[in-house]
Write a sequence for this structure.
């Protein structure tokens, strides 16, 4: 039975996190992993070249070596090399994503999206993030915002498992349903 990309990502990220935590290197490695993720996003052809059949082993290693050299953490170097040797280098991005999810979970960080009818000021965004964090018991909320004038007013907050809909549009719809009963 072969493992899915998500299974591989969860296993490798968990093992990496535990190894880094034991040596108190989590934050340093996280920064390096995120820098690697940016490289992969900037050049999606890199993962394809490293995992494809168009290049021979030496050509792939010449592409891989700068990636390995760009990090100082031996654990991250080992991860890259191991994924390459096991022909799973195309899973590196997913491993980094899962590592970040695990990091956020362990540190009480929640990512959320706020939809508002009008743009929020920096202060309003910070206050909304703090308020939402208290409500869901998060130490920190990383809030991204989006404007949608169709909601008329108020705010809709979404995180991975929580939705608060305080939009005027939803309130109007609720009143409308009550009146039609």
């Amino acid at each position: 039975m072969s493992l899915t990309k998500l299974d591989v990502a969860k296993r490798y990220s968990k093992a990496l996190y535990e190894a880094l935590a034991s040596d108190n290197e989590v934050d340093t490695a996280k920064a390096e992993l995120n820098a690697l993720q940016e490289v992969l996003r900037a050049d999606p052809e890199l993962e394809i070249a490293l995992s494809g059949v168009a290049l021979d082993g030496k050509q792939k290693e010449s592409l891989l070596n700068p990636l390995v050299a760009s990090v100082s953490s031996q654990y991250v170097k080992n991860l890259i090399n191991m994924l390459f040797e096991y022909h799973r280098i195309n899973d590196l991005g997913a491993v980094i994503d899962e590592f970040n999810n695990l990091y956020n979970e362990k540190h009480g960080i929640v990512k959320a999206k706020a939809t508002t009818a009008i743009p929020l000021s920096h202060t309003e965004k910070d206050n909304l993030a703090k308020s939402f964090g208290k409500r869901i018991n998060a130490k920190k909320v990383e809030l991204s915002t989006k404007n949608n004038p169709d909601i008329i007013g108020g705010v809709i907050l979404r995180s991975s498992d929580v939705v608060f809909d305080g939009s005027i549009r939803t309130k109007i719809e609720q009143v409308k349903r009550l009146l039609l009963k």
